[in-house]
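Working notes for the structural subgroup meeting. M.R. asked for a predicted model of this chain before we commit to crystallization trials. I am recording the input and output together here so anyone reviewing the notebook later can reproduce the run.

Input as submitted:
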Amino acid sequence: MNDFGDKKMRRLMEWTKENVMQEKPLGVIENEEKGSIDEDMDKEDIRDAEFEVEISKDLMKAFLFVIPPKGGKMMTYGEVVESIKEKGITFGVDYGQINQIIENEIFFKKVEIAKGINPVHGKDGEIKLYFDIKKNIRPKFTEDDKADFFNLDYVNNVKKGQLLAEIIPPTEGKPGKTITGKTLLAKHGKKVKLTAGKNIKISEDGLKLYSEIDGQPQLQGTKLSVVPVLEIKGDVGPATGNIDFVGSVLIRGRIKSGFRVVAKGDVQVERTLEDAEIK
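Returned structure, recorded in token form:
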């Protein structure tokens, strides 16, 4: 604790004893011969108000702490302002608060009188997709609690001219400032990358990507494409449900019994065809 800190504790104990613990008004005692007389006060006991301007370690706040006078003078607004300047505080000072402390005689309380501005970091850019890139393929249950493996919504169908993705640009950061006037740099948001693959049209501002054909969207890394052929590497069955596609369909396995494939284009099945429906 520094010298002023020691002084704070001593003065607070004195002030508490004089103003709280005594029943009689401060500065007055009774004397049988003279009645009420002023309390005998040595000149050494007369003190002007004392104050300290304290700065936080991060230089973002300053506080004013006042020790009340004892028979002496209150400090002035000008004295506090001068101390602030000597401390190197040049930004974010609440001069009205300083006046309030002096006028309302706020003692033994650390009051904030200056505040800096924290930097606001920018947000990174992001990609907004308008199709479901990760479908949750799970059977739905009918009213009689039977799992429906035929309608799993396996395929992503998109139409020509459909908006598929939008790039949200990053935002710039806003710098901050300490109460000593030092600029605090802010980080700018990072850009995201999304490139156009086959059958993709980009808007003039480069932020929106549209499909140029009917088909299925594919996102490989940062490249977005639309393919006219839906390739199913296994069977059409309980894992896929029925297939309904706006383009052509290539099935590397078989179409299991009871399942249906509907395509606007061709349907090619590489293995044996069971009792299934193709349209």
